[in-house]
Structures are given as structure tokens and as C-alpha cells.
């Protein structure tokens, strides 16, 4: 007998208590039945409570709505569609959904199930597992990969992804879209005089001002160094220019807490042209930004 079996007092070939085994599983084994009239229930449920926290299993044995009614409103139609496809084509279900635990809390559940035709409808055999911690960790990693460490804004990669998405919407619907490029004036002088820590503080404060002054629908990101960008959906050039100038003015009037005098920015604007590649739009906004620098800085050029 191995050390492990000696400790448990059970040999490998000894019969296993199935009930004890299922209760120790990190999830819920189930059978799910849908009859020909569409009524759904769980004729069998076994396993730890973590798969279906806070749900009365006896009630689920009578009516699956006790669980389905607690699904997140975005996930409910997806799960119903997956059940319908599985019943119609005999294909397995593999999905995940959110269950409401309270008005402010939910848990994530992963579900896999295999359908079987039954005399009274369709019977699925499957497993549900609580994957809340996994989903939280995945969300944290996504935020890290999408976020600029210093400012908390979207990083260059994420901003370009969002710009691609907005260009696709603008192209599809013929709606306006503007791109704003912003660059701190004489930023090298700040770093050289006060050091990089002070320069980082200025960049962080600038990011905060951008979040405060731009609209909720605008997508703000840091491209790198002292250069920032704002994607402005549903906004033609004629509307984006005054918004950009208000931001420029707010920055020029703000006290950044360093004795260098006024801190200003130069801003370049461009409006998307139907069928234009993304890089061409960026290049036009960049030329406008260069023109703002060339014309004396602390201005908006489109």
C-alpha cells in the first residue's frame, strides 16, 4: 500500500462511495431536461455548492427558472440560444455565464453538457464549475495589457484597436469620426530641469485633465512619451475643434505644481474620410500637430 493509501486507509481497488466522491467535486454534475412543451428542470444535481451558490437545488428539480431567472441579462439569450442549437443539432453545449448573487454581486459559471434524445424531450448530462476567480484574474491581466502604467489611460496597442473599431463603424454607417493628437510643449525641458519623476507627475496630471475635460464617449490613450490621442466618435471636425480648444485652454490654465511657468500643449485634428486607411488618418492628424508646433505651439490646428 502506498503512503497516500496508508494514510487514508483505502486501497486503490476498494470501491468508492459515489455520493462522497461527487460531493467533493469542485463543481456540480447535473442532468438538465427540456420537455416537448419547453418546460425545463434539473432531474439530477450533485457536487459542491460552489457551482450554484445560493440556489435551492430542490426548486431546480422542479423548475430550471429558479436558476435561469438569475442569469445576467446579457448572458440569458446566449445560453437559451446555445440550448436551442444543442437540442436541434445534437451538439454539445460549452459556454459560460454570470449568475446574480445580489444586486451588486455575481459569479461566473462555466457549463459543459452533452445532449441525448429522451422519450419526453432532450436530456443533457453536464458539469457546472464556478470560474469567478479565473474570470477576475483574466480581467486583471487584460487591464494590464491594455493600460498605460503611468497614466491609467489606454496604451498605444489598445488605443489603435479602438480606433480600428470606430473606423469600421464610421465606414459602415457613414457617421463622422475625428482623431485628436496632443503633445506637451517643451516637455524635454521639464525632464531636464526637474527630473523624470516630476515629468511623470506632469504626464499623470495631464491624463487626469483629459479624462475630466473630454466626453464620456471619447477614447483617450497615451501613444508614448508626451504624446496622447483622443478618438472622438460621431464627431465631425467642426465639432471636435472647439472641444480640443477647450482642453488646450484648461491645460494652459492649470497649475501643475512645478515652478516652470505655464505648461501648454499643441493639438492636431483630422476627420476620417470614407475608405481611408487608419494610418492615413493618423498621418493627417500628425501633420496638423506638426503644424501647431511650427506655428508657435499652444494651439489647435486641423
From TrEMBL:
<dbReference type="InterPro" id="IPR035965">
    <property type="entry name" value="PAS-like_dom_sf"/>
</dbReference>
<protein>
    <recommendedName>
        <fullName>diguanylate cyclase</fullName>
        <ecNumber>2.7.7.65</ecNumber>
    </recommendedName>
</protein>
<dbReference type="InterPro" id="IPR029787">
    <property type="entry name" value="Nucleotide_cyclase"/>
</dbReference>
<feature type="domain" description="GGDEF">
    <location>
        <begin position="175"/>
        <end position="302"/>
    </location>
</feature>
<dbReference type="InterPro" id="IPR050469">
    <property type="entry name" value="Diguanylate_Cyclase"/>
</dbReference>
<dbReference type="GO" id="GO:0052621">
    <property type="term" value="F:diguanylate cyclase activity"/>
</dbReference>
<dbReference type="InterPro" id="IPR000160">
    <property type="entry name" value="GGDEF_dom"/>
</dbReference>
<dbReference type="GO" id="GO:0043709">
    <property type="term" value="P:cell adhesion involved in single-species biofilm formation"/>
</dbReference>
<dbReference type="InterPro" id="IPR043128">
    <property type="entry name" value="Rev_trsase/Diguanyl_cyclase"/>
</dbReference>
<dbReference type="GO" id="GO:0005886">
    <property type="term" value="C:plasma membrane"/>
</dbReference>
<dbReference type="GO" id="GO:1902201">
    <property type="term" value="P:negative regulation of bacterial-type flagellum-dependent cell motility"/>
</dbReference>
<dbReference type="Pfam" id="PF00990">
    <property type="entry name" value="GGDEF"/>
</dbReference>
